[in-house]
Amino acid sequence: MSTLDPASPATGELPFFVYGTLLPGEPNHDLFLRGRTSGERAAVLPRALLYDGPGYPYAIDGHGRVHGTLLTAAPGVYEELLGLLDHLEEYLGPGHPRNLYERVVREIELPGEEQAGKGQPGEGTPEEGAPGAGTVRAWVYLAAAAVTRSLRTGGSVIDGGRWVTRRPPDGPRTP
Question: pTM score, two decimals?
Fold first, then answer.
């Protein structure tokens, strides 16, 4: 598992892994991502757990898998998108005491071509041992340290690591 300093030049223009209200079909996808991405595909964050939050989820390091979408910024909008996402996720800088999330680099698993496009966004991702298209490094917003401590002591894990399963089909969307 890699955690790089966000200021490190080795991070470059990495894609983003999203798993909650930024997923296709969720309200923040259109608000923050419409016209700012050049690619979106199903992906999995390994060695992580997904917790229910107040209208949005939190991912933390753990023994599960979180299903989501890998986003590539459209040409010329990377810095704008990075700033928008940092603001949305209340990320003020590495280790800042008021961070809600930390922006970290993680290895993200990509589904194989035979699995791509099946099911809803965040689905069709490889299960343990399934053939895949490999991994890619990406930015992920994980719960900040204080939030993680609170989740570990009293939070509700989202079984299966899929935010899209948190609302009934054809039901109201979470804000």
Answer: 0.79
